[in-house]
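#struct-pred

JT: dropping the chains for the assembly here, can someone run the whole complex?
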Amino acid sequence: MAAVQETVDRVKAIDVDAYKYGFVTDIESELAPKGLNEDIVRFISARKNEPEWLTQWRLDAYRRWLTMREPTWARVHYKPIDFQDLHYYAAPKSTPGPKSLDEVDPELLRTYEKLGIPLREQELLAGVQTSKVAVDAVFDSVSVATTFKAELAKAGVIFCPISEAVHSHPELVQKYLGSVVPVTDNFYATLNSAVFSDGSFVYIPPGVRCPMELSTYFRINEKKTGQFERTLIIADKGSYVSYLEGCTAPQRDENQLHAAVVELIALDDAEIKYSTVQNWYPGDAEGRGGIYNFVTKRGDCRGPRSKISWTQVETGSAITWKYPSCILRGDESRGEFYSIAISNGYQQVDSGTKMIHLGKNTTSRIISKGISAGRSNNTYRGQVSAHRKASGARNFTNCDSLLIGHDCGAHTVPYIESKNATAVFEHEATTSKISEDQLFYCMQRGLSAEEATALIVNGFVRDVLQQLPMEFAVEAQKLISISLEGSVG
Amino acid sequence: MLEIKNLHASIGDKKILDGLTLTVKKGEVAAIMGPNGSGKSTLSYVISGREDYTVTQGEVLLDGVNLLDMDASERANAGVFLAFQYPLEIPGVATMTFLKAAMNAHARANGQSELQTPDFMRRVREAAQKLGVSQDMLKRPLNVGFSGGEKKRMEILQMALLQPKLGILDETDSGLDIDALRVVSEGVNALRAPDRAFLVITHYQRLLDYIKPDTVHVMARGRIVKTGGPELALELEKSGYKDYVGEAA
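RK: done, full complex below.
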């Protein structure tokens, strides 16, 4: 149980409600003026030297957004956001665009080093020696570095900032951008379409198994800044890719908005595995500050026998509003959603998934583990539907909630809708509390209260942790204990 | 070894232990017998440090050290082991993982270095073999889906690995058939040692046919009301607890 011991040591080493990644990088930024209007949209587009079609696409989205309202159906509460009091673009001055690693501002390199993210190609994530991970680092509104590009290019894999892909692979971007999450999809996705800044672009050519894990690391640094990243991943016929995403932000008293859009497209027989470890600043012990994480993530199993799998470990953010989904369009395609959502302090989580069965014999699986501690609220919201043509569709959902303490809440809101008589949907849900009996039992064997809680929680989330790539699983396990710090006794 | 002096304890407003005094010497196996509701299980919880109980008076000393100043895990690491009447299930945590966490906690608390994996594996394998605990059980989540007999054998296995100074068996015979009872008892007997004491809590004489006590204490209304040798258990088997219950009325 080395990992548990390590987590316990780490938990002991940090102060109450100290967020490890809460430092601010002192770097000069170019900021767009506060507020949002057509000029700002044009400003962002011009900064990226975008072609006319994309500028128009953004403006269309902006005009549409003006007619939309913030969704209120989620079980989260916050003061209305003043969208005119935000910067929609922030970029470190020293790094106008992605360059080779040697040219990246040393201050930025140090920032990522502090975060444990290797931007030098010989370094590897979490000290695991056997695998390589290519990293795209997004700092506020721009990508500052992408590693292993050359090696990936040999395999025909394109991995670059989306702002670069717009120029280097316009036909792919134009064909797929907005094809899974339409410009009109929802309030935040539409806003993102208007002002998105940067994010990663991935294309895996037919029949290629991507030779290494791809990873994007998002960092919000500037204050009063929204981050609107856009990620687009296309797995062409018979290809495979595993992609990891991580996020952190400085500790600030005000709330920061993060409204991302991620689109995945899997063509015939292709497979995409998308893993997230979300650790945005959650706010302090009194519930001040923290990130509003309002994210639209959707995958389209467009070809037959394609597969998309989402795995997420959600520990950060003041508010999480996020439903990574799969559209199972291709016959026999498969969607998976594995989630660990942990809330502590005053955090609010409303997260889950949608599995939309359109094709024949499509299958999906949902395993969700919610853990609530402190005064937090944690809601699982999931939709499973079968179109009338989706004969033979199958879904299995398992949704467990664990409560720690007396002041937190867990809620499960499943929506199940079948228009085809041959579809089979199963739903299991449990809510339990770490019992005093279990804690006493472990302590009677010599474990401290913190060790006992870490052990029980790690057992509870085990099914999902097993889905993560190895080097992330270790990190995630540590993160879980840190997030639950102070929840015992 | 174990000295309990004038112990008073309650849960909520309910007083359960009412001036209990008991001494168990090194190497001794002491049986605690008594009718339901006499406070036998409470005694085991109070010694091992369960928080639901409030100790209002008295002392519990292990080798002269007051256990009441320690929390449950400190007491465990000081050498108190409780074999539970109803062992808890810990879903998702492999039995091996749990055993290692417990053994390492003991090692650290006693200033020793943690066990090397091959060493750990060897010790678990040896102990498991004696108790008929299969490799498959060791891989499964702790106690999840174990039969009553398997759970009790797992308790004894843990005791064998943690080598306590004081082993408390809380109604270990409940829910066991005769074969399981024999295996578990043999496991306990193998752990009898000159520097280890046992407190065997049971309602029935049956267990004491297998684990021979040196002394037998009768508990009623939260205190020890009679103390004798093994023959006292046989008397109780014949006459029942009615004399003691009667005294209460």
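JT: nice. Chain A has one domain: 2-483. The interface with chain B takes residues 1, 4-5, 435-438, 440-449, 451-452, 455-456, 458-463 of chain A (CB under 8 Å).
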